[in-house]
C-alpha cells in the first residue's frame, strides 16, 4: 500500500508539473489551482490503471515482462522522434496535452504488443500460459500438492497452462517438512518433490507468487481471495475448501471427485475377481479392494482370506467418502490362494 501511495503522489506531481510549466500565465493564482486539479485527475487515472493491472502482474512470464519493457522503450523513442519532427516542422496548435495523449497512447500500445509477443515467444518446450490459450490459471492448495496425483494428471495432459502456487502455501509445505513428526515430515517433503517434478512437465508453467492477504489468517480463505482477485480456479482434494470456495462463487477442481468419476462402473449381478485380504466386521465376512481402492465386502468369505475368488455383486452403496460394494461368493469361482 505504501508503494501505491508513493506512485499516486508521483503521478499527481507529474500532472501538476506539466500543467504549470507549460502554462503561459505563471503569475496567475488560478493556474496553480488548475494545475493542481489536473494533477489530481492524472493521479486518479494512473492509480486506477495500476489497481486494475496489479492482479495480472503475476501472470506475466519473464519473457512477457521483457517484451513489455522493450515495447515501452520503443514507444518512448517513437514519441520523442515524433515530437522532434513536430517541433522541426513548427506545426501550429500542438499543445502539451496533445503530446501527453500521444505519449500515453504509444506507451499503452507498446506495452500491450510487447507483452503479447513476449508471451508468444515463450515456447521453450512449453506453450504460453496466457489465459487466451488455456483458460483461467489453476491455484494449488497444500493437500493436493502433498497428495501427488496432480502431477500425474498434468503429465497426461488433463491440466495445462499456468499453475499458481502462492508463497504462503510453500511456507506451509516447508513447515510440514520440518516437523518433528516423521509422518508429517515425509508428507511435507513429498509435496516439495511433487512441485519440483511438475516444473519439468511440458505444457504447464509453475508460477510462485507473492500474493498474500495479511488480514486473512486461514490459508483456505487466502486461496479463495487469491482466486477471486485473478479469476483463477482452485485445485484441491479438501472437502471443506471445496465447500468454502463454492460459497464464494470460486470455481474448484476436486481431484477426489475426478477420481470418483473415473472409477469403473459395477452393477448388481455382475461378477468380478477379488482377493480377500482380511476379515470383515460381521460374522464370516471377508473384505477385498478393487485397484482404485474401492472396498468390496464379501459375505461368507472369511475362510477365503488370502485367496483370490470370483464374487457376484449384490449391491453398491455410495457414501460421502466413496463407494462400497457388497457381494457374495460364487463357490465354483475360487481362482488361487495359499494355505488350504
Describe the structure.
The chain has 340 residues and is α/β, with parallel strands linked by helices. The protein contains 12 helices and 10 strands. The strands form 2 sheets. Strands 3-2-1-4-5 form a 5-stranded parallel sheet. Strands 6-7-8-10-9 form a 5-stranded mixed barrel. Strand 4 (233-236), helix 11 and strand 5 (252-254) form a beta-alpha-beta unit. Helix 1 (2-21) runs antiparallel to helix 2 (29-57), helix 3 (62-89) packs antiparallel against helix 4 (96-120) and helix 7 packs parallel to helix 9. The chain is elongated and about 105 Å long. 25% of the residues are buried. Residues 123-133 have low confidence and may be disordered.
Quick structural summary:
The protein is built from 12 helices and 10 strands.
Amino acid at each position: 500500500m505504501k508503494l501505491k501511495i508513493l506512485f499516486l503522489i508521483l503521478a499527481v506531481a507529474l500532472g501538476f508539473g506539466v500543467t504549470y510549466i507549460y502554462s503561459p500565465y505563471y503569475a496567475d493564482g488560478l493556474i496553480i489551482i488548475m494545475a493542481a486539479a489536473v494533477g489530481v485527475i492524472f493521479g486518479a487515472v494512473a492509480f486506477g490503471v495500476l489497481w486494475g493491472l496489479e492482479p495480472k502482474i503475476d501472470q506475466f512470464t519473464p519473457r512477457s515482462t521483457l517484451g513489455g519493457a522493450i515495447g515501452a522503450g520503443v514507444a518512448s523513442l517513437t514519441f520523442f522522434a515524433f515530437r522532434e519532427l513536430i517541433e522541426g516542422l513548427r506545426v501550429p496548435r500542438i499543445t502539451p496535452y496533445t503530446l501527453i495523449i500521444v505519449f500515453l497512447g504509444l506507451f499503452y500500445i507498446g506495452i500491450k504488443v510487447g507483452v503479447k509477443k513476449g508471451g508468444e515467444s515463450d515456447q521453450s518446450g512449453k506453450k504460453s500460459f496466457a489465459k487466451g490459450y488455456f483458460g483461467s490459471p489453476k491455484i494449488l492448495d497444500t493437500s493436493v500438492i502433498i497428495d501427488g496425483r496432480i502431477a500425474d494428471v498434468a503429465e497426461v495432459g488433463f491440466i495445462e497452462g499456468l499453475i499458481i502456487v502462492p508463497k504462503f502455501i510453500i511456507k506451509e509445505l516447508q513447515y510440514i517438512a520440518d516437523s518433528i513428526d516423521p509422518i508429517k515430515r515425509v508428507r511435507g517433503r513429498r509435496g516439495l518433490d511433487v512441485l519440483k517434478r511438475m516444473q519439468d512437465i511440458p505444457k504447464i508453467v509453475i508460477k510462485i507468487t507473492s500474493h498474500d492477504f495479511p488480514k486473512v489468517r486461514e490459508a483456505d480463505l487466502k486461496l479463495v481471495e487469491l482466486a477471486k482477485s485473478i479469476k483463477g480456479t482452485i485445485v484441491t482434494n479438501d472437502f471443506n475448501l471445496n465447500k468454502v470456495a463454492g460459497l464464494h462463487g470460486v470455481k474448484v477442481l476436486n481431484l477426489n471427485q475426478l477420481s470418483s468419476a473415473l472409477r469403473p462402473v459395477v452393477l448388481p449381478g455382475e461378477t468380478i475377481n477379488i482377493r480377500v485380504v482380511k476379515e470383515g466386521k460381521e460374522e464370516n465376512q471377508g473384505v477385498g479392494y478393487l485397484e482404485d481402492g474401492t472396498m468390496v465386502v464379501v459375505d461368507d468369505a472369511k475362510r477365503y482370506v488370502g485367496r483370490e475368488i470370483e464374487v457376484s455383486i449384490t449391491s453398491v452403496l455410495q457414501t460421502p467418502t466413496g463407494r462400497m460394494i457388497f457381494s457374495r461368493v460364487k463357490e465354483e469361482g475360487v481362482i488361487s490362494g495359499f494355505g488350504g
